[in-house]
Amino acid sequence: MTGIDEEATKALHGMVPYAETLGIEVLASSAEEVRARVAWSEAGTTLGGALNGGVLMGLADNTGALCAFQNLPEGSAGTSTVESKTNFLRAVRAGHATAVSRPLHVGRRFVVVETDITDDDGRLVARVTQTQAVL
To answer: To 10 degrees, the CA torsion angle through 17, 6, 126, 16?
Structure first.
């Protein structure tokens, strides 16, 4: 596992304060792949101590948006999520949830990103596909 990219994390928190609220840490960031994680915390859990699905979706949305942002066509101002689908496959009850986002389609009007979220043992926790409008 790579270390935290402090500069990219600070930039993400500056653009999206909610990412800081969630405690998202960027591990690596490029147009081809964005890696970020969030730590399990009791405040972020649901009944039974599992990390809340909203936390996982927030991680994926922010990681996917950062990936889409890095794939914007020349002259674009930004992106906005217009569709997101999540399949939850297992719970995270300790450690970190780590997201890896990769572009599936980069067009003039939309960027489609797929994000896999894994636990500390590398097991797939969730898969998220989102469409980002190019603004």
So the answer is: 20
Nearest C-alpha neighbor of 99 from the set 22, 23, 33: 33
The token pair at 36 is 């970020």
Q: How is residue 124 written in tokens?
A: 């797939």
Give tens-digit pLDDT for 36-95. 999 999 999 998 999 999 999 999 999 999 999 999 988 888 999 999 999 999 999 999
Q: How many other CB atoms sit within 10 Å of the CB of residue 106?
A: 18
Q: What is the pTM of this model?
A: 0.95
pLDDT tens digits for 97-128?
999 999 999 999 999 999 999 999 999 999 99
Under a CB-based contact definition with an 8 Å cutoff, are residues 34 and 68 in contact?
Answer: no
And the tokens for 63?
A: 């990681």
In angstroms, what is the C-alpha Rg of the chain? 14
Encoding tokens for residue 66?
């950062």
Q: Name residue 114's amino acid.
A: E
The number of angstroms, rounded, from the C-alpha of 105 to the middle of its chain's C-alpha atoms is 17
